Amino acid sequence: MQSSFASIIGAALPVFLLLGLGFLLRKGKTLTEEADASLLKLLVRVLYPCLYLDYIIGNPALKSAGNLITAPLIGFVSIVAGFAIAYGMARLLGLERGTGLRTFSFCNGIY
């Protein structure tokens, strides 16, 4: 159980470190609002797939048929629920399409 928890922390820690780095760079005015669109594309099209592949290739847990069905199904359902909750919260905050609604929903729903 302990090694499983360490594996989860090891997978999540780089993501949170990147979030913190982005926050610091934005506060220091190194990153501007104009950079957001290209950085989001980089994140979605390159960094997320690399993270997924890094933990999928050679993973012994994927040899069990139960893990091949249950884990992706739970992951899919929880992320769709996250998108729906984030979308609802964005609407409550007054965000509209074209002014941050979809970006807010994606960034908070993908967790």
Question: If you had to describe this structure to a student in words, what would you say it looks like?
Answer:
- The structure is a single chain.
- It contains four helices and no strands.
- It is 76% helix and 0% strand.
- The chain is mainly alpha-helical.
- It has helices at residues 2-27, 36-56, 65-92, 101-109.
- It starts with a helix and ends with a helix.
- The radius of gyration is 17 Å and the shape is globular.
- The longest helix is centred in the C-terminal third of the chain and has 28 residues, at 65-92.
Topology:
Blueprint: H1 2-27, H2 36-56, H3 65-92, H4 101-109
Short descriptors:
mainly alpha; 4 helices; 111 residues; single chain; globular
Low-confidence stretches: none
CA radius of gyration is: 17 Å
Helix content: over 70%
Average of the residue pLDDT scores? 86
Question: Based on DSSP secondary structure assignment, what is the total number of beta strands?
Answer: 0
The number of helical elements comes to: 4
Largest sheet: none
Beta-strand proportion: under 5%
Structural class: mainly alpha
Along the chain, the helix and strand elements come as HHHH
- Spatial gap, N to C terminus: 23 Å
General form: globular
